[in-house]
Amino acid sequence: MDRILLFIPMYNCENQISRVIEKIKKSEVYVFLNEIIIIDNHSKDNSIENARRAIEKNDCRKARVVKNHENVGLGGTHKSAFKYAVQNNFDYVIVLHGDDQGDISDFSKVISEREYRKWDAVLGSRFMKGSSTPGYSKFRIFGNLVFNKIVSIITRRKIYDLGSGLNMYRVNALSEPFYLRYPDNLVFNVYMLMGHTSLSHKLKFYPISWREEDQVSNVKLFSQTKYMTKSLLLYLVKRNKFLNGRDHRTKTIESYYFNEL
Fold first, then answer.
1. Where is the Glycosyltransferase 2-like domain (predicted)?
2. Which of 27, 64, 73, 158 is deepest in the core (most CB within 10 A)?
């Protein structure tokens, strides 16, 4: 039986995290999970307290709340979880954002029928046939579709989403930390796509639902777009040298880890 870790990056999600935990406990996926870690990235609200209450209320005994040693961004939180998954001999790791935009149940078939075993990464897509995006603005949908096309051309792979909040990875594919010097911000997922394609990892995009109702977006749309465009152009020109020959972080962090609470 595969050992599967679910990690939930959480930052200022006090209004959403209880719903996320409730959905996980009620989903068909829960029985397949060996452990759930909710990684708080130094939230400034009551996210930790609300997460703990939701765990107790829903009798979600596989879950616990931990806290990054410092605010390391969304990308840095991935690195903390990946490191934990490798060190603790998990076979697969799932990421589900704590803002209740994605739904773990969308991966029920992938997990219950063990479809994930065919791939190094199963990546949730908000923009392919079978997906749904209630509340998502048409402007942002259009922008994502444009960038999906651009990245497909640059990576020479069909890309359906640059980075949703529901993905599943084979831990063996993460054991060599090729991603360690990728940005610690929201662009981490785009760099992961470039890394996957450079390493010829087997990718599967899978349609998911994505709701955007009471979320407070952390995306600085235009600055992120500018940053991502520059990165993609450099990758197009220099390929592996661009990915592996430099540190893409704005701050050097020696080790990514979280502390128990």
1. 7-175
2. 73
